[in-house]
Structure formats: structure tokens, C-alpha cells
Amino acid sequence: MKTIARIFAATTAIGLATTGAFAQTVTMKFGHVGNPGSLFEATVDNFAACVNDSMGDKVEVQTFGSSQLGKDKELLQKLKLGQVDFALPSSVMSSVDDKFGIFEMPYIISDRDHMRRVQAEMMDVFQGAANDNGYQIVGLAENGFRNITNNTRPINVPADLEGIKLRTPNGVWRLKMFQEYGANPTPMAFSDVFTALQTGVIDGQENPYAQIASAKFQEVQKYLSVTEHVYTPAYILMSKKKFDSLDADTQAGLTGCANKTQDFTYETAAELETSLLKVIVDAGVEVNTADKAAFIEASAPIYKQFADEVEGGQAMIDKVLGLGNSG
């Protein structure tokens, strides 16, 4: 009996040791394209800090900015391959599924409260689109309201974009929009933009102040035109396979931190809109406020294309615009 007891004790010890090994903290990599000082960096760091503080015994999130783990499209692929656990895509999501193209419609989102209403009423649409393509939206953040910089001339009305070679993200609807305005849009990874501007490969680009200033575009651009033509959310994204493999408590913890991070991001973004505009102006960039009414009028064909080409497109447009008029 003593021999049996010793064998049982040894087996139990091995079992406990094995259980302990499996209970070790899981390290998860979060890759993004934001530069130091960007809203993307602040967002990802805030999310990682929340997870590490509240779930540090189970999950540790490590952050990698400045496209260290890949550019947007590469990160989307690496999520599916399990080489990266989180990414923070924005405009590129319209190339994943046309439903995300609703946020590429000019002036369709009026402010962050409007975006929250859209999120509350329509998140199942976007989560479904993500799931259908192998992804899981853990939460929303933002890229922000986009404005145009260039080295050719101030942009007051769409006609001023005629012939300007303008970098855009890899999203079909942004490309169509600037083609409609008369520009020569050129899709390009964000990490390549500074050098392309510096060398004259492109004339300009369009981004929120947080991306413009953190990437130091003000050092290689003459004009900033405040158009606020598109508001782009950002998505705290995982592969659906990875998310589904996590236990319910871990899923809830990640989602909870993502919700807290959204609040932080919105507050930070609102502050940066003031402080970073000053940074850009102080660098000697000439600033003008564009004629938004002229841009809205010129945007009608883009809305029609979306309604005609995307299944349920008109209903989505009507729903989003309707939510902008409420509250």
C-alpha cells in the first residue's frame, strides 16, 4: 500500500507541475503602424496597460509600433497565421469587406457621439463582416478626422485637387473618392509616405493631425487644408480563431479593456486636435479651411456608387445618416 501511495503522490505532483506550466502567463503581440507620439501608439499602449494590470497573471500584451511587425495588410495576414495576436487597422478594413467602406463615405460621420450611436446600433453588422473574413473586433478606437496636406497649392474646393498626386491608404472607396474630386490618388503604405513626400514621388497625403504630426509630415509639406472629409475608426482586431480559442473570462477581460481604451482614445484625440494643429502651424505650414459644402456636393456620386455596388449599401447610408440626426 505504501508503494501505491508513493506512486499516487508522485503522479499528483507531476500533474500539479504540468498544470502550473499550462497556467503560465500567455504573451500576446500587438502590432501597429503608428509612430512614436501617435494616437495609435497611445491607444495600443493604453490597451496593453489595462490588460497587463487587470489580467497580468493570464495575459501579457507586448506592443510593437512603427510597422515593426508589418504594414497594415501584412498585419492582417499575420493575424490569421497566428504570428501576431492584435492589430489596429483603420481604412484598410474597407478592403477586407465592403461594409467597412461605409466609413469611407465623405462627411457621413459628424462627430464622436455620432460614431458611438452608429456603434451601438450597427456593431453587429461590422462584427459579422469581420467574422465572415476570419477576424474578431475586440473593440473600436479611432484614426480620426482626416485633412489634406500637399506641396502644390491650398485646397479650398475639390477642383483644387486636379492633378495632385495624393497618397491614400489601401482602400477602394478612398481611391474612388479622390478620383471623383480630380486628384491622382496613389495607394501607399503609411510607413513609406514621409520619404515619398520628401523626394517628390507624391505631392501630398491625407490623415488626421495625430498621424501628420507624429510622422513629421509638417517637415516636408507646405499646405494643410482642413477638410475633415472622412472620419476613420480604428479596430482592435484579432483573428476569430485566436479569440474563440480563449476562455470566456479572458475574452471578457480583453473586451472590457478595449471599451475603456475607446473612452481614453476619444478624450486624447479631442485634445490632440488642438495641440497638434499648433505643432503643424509652428513648423511653418500654411493652413486654410476648405469649403466643406463644395466637397459634400462633389461627394454625391460616391454615395451613389456605394449604394449601387454594395449589398444593402443604401440602407446602411440611410441608417448612419439617420443616427447623425438623432441625439
What does it look like?
This protein is an alpha/beta fold and 327 residues long. The chain has a single domain, classed as Bacterial extracellular solute-binding protein, family 7 (D-Maltodextrin-Binding Protein, domain 2, 3-Layer(aba) Sandwich), CATH 3.40.190.170. Helix content is 50%, strand content 18%. It contains twelve helices and eleven strands. It has helices spanning 2-22, 39-55, 72-81, 112-132, 172-181, 193-199, 209-214, 240-245, 248-282, 292-298, 300-309, 313-324, and strands at 26-31, 59-64, 86-87, 135-145, 147-150, 165-168, 184-187, 204-207, 223-226, 231-239, 286-289. The strands form three sheets. Strands 7-6-8-5-9-11 form a six-stranded mixed sheet. A three-stranded parallel sheet has the order 2-1-3. Strand 6 (165-168), helix 5 (172-181) and strand 7 (184-187) form a beta-alpha-beta unit. It is globular. The model is unreliable at 1-21 (pLDDT under 50).
Strand order of the largest sheet: 7-6-8-5-9-11
What kind of assembly state do the chains in view correspond to?
single chain
> How many separate domains?
1
Mean pLDDT: 93
Q: DSSP helix count? A: 12
CATH superfamily: Bacterial extracellular solute-binding protein, family 7
Class by helix and strand content? alpha/beta
Predict the CATH topology. Answer: D-Maltodextrin-Binding Protein, domain 2
Distance between the termini: 75 Å
H/E element order: HEHEHEHEEEHEHEHEEHHEHHH
- Whole-number radius of gyration? 23 Å
Record field, number of beta strands: 11
Any idea what the shape is? globular
The unreliable regions are 1-21
Note the main sheet.
6 strands, mixed
At the first level of CATH, what is the class?
Answer: Alpha Beta
Share of helix, binned: 40-55%
DSSP strand content: 15-25%
